[in-house]
Write a structure and sequence with these properties.
Blueprint lengths: L1 H7 L2 H13 L4 H5 L6 H13 L3 E6 L2 E6 L2 H28 L12
Antiparallel strand pairs: 1-2
Length: 110
Amino acid sequence: METVFTAIADPTRRQVLERLRSEGALSVKQLAEPMTVTRQAVTKHLDILHKAGLIKVERHGRERRHRLQPEPLQAVDDWLRPYAQAWDDAFARLRKHLGEAPDNSNNTGE
């Protein structure tokens, strides 16, 4: 799991992961176009993400496309969940202490 944490620690790699999540499989060229880093830098970031198991490489003819593999992120979510719950509980106690209404922002029905 350490390699996943190391991989997602970098903001550029998080940006790459977000693009792959929202846009699907992309080539290095497509990933580098809107970014302020070179294609070589994007390639290095992709290598780290690949080693962490966060992306897989697919061949489409002569082109290599990179696709998000979100499963390793589940371990991060599992690890962070108790901390998030502790913060939610602390904020709920604070709101109660201040006499505020409960925060229902987690409800999906609006």
